[in-house]
Amino acid sequence: MNLTFDERLVAVGTGIRTVGQLTGEALAWIKRADKVLYVLSDPVSERLIHDLNPTGAESLQHFYVENKVRREIYEQMIQLTLGYVRSGRVVCLAVYGHPGVFAFPTHESIRRARAEGYQARMLPGVSAEDCLFADFNIDPGSAGCQSYEATDFLVNRRITDPSSHLILWQMIVLGDSTYRWQVDSPPAMRQFIARLTQQYPPDHVVYVYEASIFPGVEARIEPVTIAQLGQVRYTTMSTLYVPPCVAPRADLQLYQSLGIPLG
Amino acid sequence: MTGRLTPFLVALARDPELYAAWIRQPEAVMVWAGLDAEERAVLHSRDQDRIYQALFRPPSAAAAPPWSIDGGVPSSASAAGTAVYWGSYAYPPVTVTLPVTPAPPSSPSAPFA
Ligand SMILES: C[S@@+](CC[C@H](N)C(=O)[O-])C[C@H]1O[C@@H](n2cnc3c(N)ncnc32)[C@H](O)[C@@H]1O
Q1: Segments forming the whole domain that contains residue B44
Q2: Percentage of chain B with pLDDT > 70?
Q3: Residue B102: inside a domain, yes or no?
Q4: Residue B18 φ then ψ, to 5°
Q5: Are residues B97 and A114, on separate chains, in Cβ contact within 8 Å?
Q6: Pairing outcome for strands A35-39 and A57-59
Q7: Do B14 and A48 touch (CB under 8 A)?
Q8: Exposed, middle or buried by CB within 10 Å (0-12, 13-18, 19+), for B10?
Q9: CA–CA min distance A93, chain B (Å)
Q10: Does B113 reside within a domain?
Q11: What mean pLDDT comes out for the span B60-80?
Q12: B75 vs A32: CB contact, 8 Å cut-off?
């Protein structure tokens, strides 16, 4: 049997910092596709897509309109993607970061394409969380790690463990279902601080994090206490990192019975 | 501004050899690539906002990049598990069919592996 690549839809990520984080397989599919539909965060990656595929590149950015409900934006992107797939083209959906991390339209486009009988695949990329582990020099294996969309964390009363790392995404739209560029203080900040202080002391230091998108540039890492979270600037790139504030509660009996050395 | 800043960064993204050379000798490689003093200063600044803004600035003299790096590859060239993700505030709930490699009969199936 001959090797064939039958994919009609491939979702790829360009990484957070396209210079250095674009994978070889993402690059290959961007070149090979008939259509490259993209949502990217900087002019370098946009220019790269056009250089790699001058006739097929098409931005989805115009769907993002300030104050528009995000679900509506996503649905329009999915419809356009599926339309091209149904017309017989090989479509590459290129987004910044990892295409499957906090990226509903990519997952949903793949699900719907598969449901209609098309071969569809997602290729991993470098996400903001991957950059965070590198920039903070922390290992999710060291204390465990929980990762939530910030509004989801708040409104769904997610159960978190303050002895683990906690990562909260999409701070800019905390308590807001519409699209925003930049806000002084997200609408649900008061409730968010109240929620965090149920588990953490108000003077616990957390970090507003923005991985750099260009080579040679340092990340924005802004330490702030939980009580002061309403006084920092949030952008579309802001992720909140909450370090553990307590040691895990060890089951000493289990340690002993399993013969695991303490410490 | 020569307009070569964006093409230079695009070239770095596509070519690890060039990136390695730039890491070794940033200034020399930027001069070789035809960036003018202002563009080189922008990258030397390590300032994200400054770089971002410079990428939108029109070139002061129309000049094509002195090099091209396009390789020119022709463009023509069982069992399934189901999971429901309850979604979050931003994402609606979805039912997903997960392709799984059939597990050997003795071991428990692991649809999420
Ligand atoms: C829709 S999600 C996209 C995530 C992306 N797919 C990824 O793999 O990282 C947008 C959120 O990702 C996070 N994010 C995006 N860019 C970032 C950056 N440069 N540094 C830190 N977090 C970032 C922020 O929490 C932002 O609200």
Answers
A1: 5-61+74-97
A2: 53
A3: no
A4: -65, -40
A5: yes
A6: parallel
A7: yes
A8: buried
A9: 17
A10: no
A11: 41
A12: yes
> Which of B13, B46, B96 is facing A111, going by the closest CB pair?
B96
In a domain, residue B57? The reply is: yes
Number of domain units in chain B: 1
Stretch A227-250: mean pLDDT, rounded? 94
Quick one: what percent of chain A has pLDDT higher than 90? 85
Q: What is the pLDDT of residue A196?
A: 97
Name the residue in chain B with its Cα closest to that of A35: B75
Q: What is the mean pLDDT of residues B71-96?
A: 42
In this prediction, residues A23-48 reach a mean pLDDT of 95
Report the DSSP pairing between strands A9-13 and A120-122: parallel
Model pLDDT, residue A204: 97
Residues A49, B69 contacting (CB under 8 angstroms):
no
CA distance A8 to A29: 11
A161 touches chain B (CB under 8 A): no
Ligand 1 pocket: which of A45, A61, A170 to mutate (most atoms within 8 A of CB): A170
What six digits make up the tokens of A35?
Answer: 């259509």
**Ligand 1 neighbours (beta carbon < 6 A):** A 16, 95, 97-98, 101-103, 127-128, 169-170, 172, 209-211, 213, 236-239
Residue B42 forms part of a structural domain? yes
Model ipTM? 0.90
pLDDT tens across A29-38, in order? 999 999 999 9
For residue A70, pLDDT over 90 is answered with no
Please count the residue pairs, one from chain A and one from chain B, whose beta carbons lie less than 8 angstroms apart. Answer: 86
Domains of chain A and CATH, by start: 9-122 (3.40.1010.10), 128-242 (3.30.950.10)
Contact: A214, B89; criterion CB under 8 Å: no
Least confident among A121-125, B75-79, B84-88? B75-79
Q: For A47-181, list the strands marked E by DSSP.
A: 57-59, 91-95, 120-122, 145-149, 165-169
What is the per-residue DSSP string for A124-146? ----HHHHHHHHTT--HHHH-EE
Does residue B106 surpass a pLDDT of 60? Answer: no
